[in-house]
Write a structure and sequence with these properties.
Length: 405
Amino acid sequence: MNKKSILILTFAVVMFLITTISLATAEDLEVSLNYTPYPAIQGQDVNLIFTIENTGEENLTDLEFILDEGSKFDLVGNDKKNIAVLNAGQTSTITYVLNVEDSASGNENVNLEWNYKKGSDEKNNDNDFTIRVSEKDVFLTIADAKTTPSNLIPGQTGKLDLTLENEANSNIKDIVVSLDFTNLPFAPSAGVTEKKISSINVGDSEKISFDIGVLQGTEPKTYKVPVALKYYDSYGQIYQKVNIISLSVFSEPELDFAVDKNQLILGSGGKISLNVFNKGLTDVFFSDVKLLESSDYRILSSNSAYIGKISSDDYDSADFEIILNKENVNLQFEIRYKDANNNKYSKSVSLPVKVYSKEEAIAAGLIKVVVWPYFLLGLIVIIVLWVVIARAIKKKRKENAKRLS
């Protein structure tokens, strides 16, 4: 026998011995586990489906399976399952229902023991199986939502900062944050309403920012904006939820003032009107005007007037009647009002007014000069003079007539 033949024969003998030993020690049953849901969830039921396969060449009988659920699960039903016969190559399944306790987390084990007969021989075995347990609810929260400026302004762009916090007992990954501006007066800068975060570890937080444009003409008030969160736990379980944040749109009232109907004559009573113009983007509410006392003038009417609401890009007025004691007078007003958020404002205003002398008033036509009395007086004087002169002439004529006779 040559060297090559000897090597081939030796290899064949070794392979035969290996095969014989494997078959002799081969397990008759192969048991595998699938469970739903995956992962199991705290406080909920999980279905354990064990697949039993007879991998041997002989039929097996009187198969009995006993489940030890451990300390983190509560068994629903009987712990024993039986299969009368499992033929060679045949597969069967048995199912257990467990309730997952709230204290379970991570990888938890159960033990399955099985007994059976192979011919006249009684055999048994057991194995531990791992069940992954997820939290009842993996909390990813919006811990804070801030805008810069704190009150967004119509027609301008602001910044929204969201702080997300992982309140779960496991890491959270593949986080998607989406803003929903449907039917809201906001527009995303550069069209970005969705941002992603790769992961947030247990107890950590992460901040993301959005640039937000507020549409021109937006009514100042607080708007509710839905924020959708989609994320996965460490086992790949998906979670989706919607949070609501508040965005405040506001612009401080911008008022301007002017004195109208200014026809004041020194020493005489006159009427003035204070016009209040709302040049801002927000309405003004509960406004009232007070004319303050001064030695430069005397107030003949009430010194206060209630105006109420003044809409944006509109105006209203308050009327007062006064007597001016000197020229070059500044009227002192105090205006109080509220904005749409019920914030109170107070403003002091000093406005100059034109004061006319009587001569200036006559020249300006503010005082009408009545000429008919003077005309009538002149006419009377002329008539009186005419009568006197006529009588004098008549008397003179009589005297001359007497002298001639």
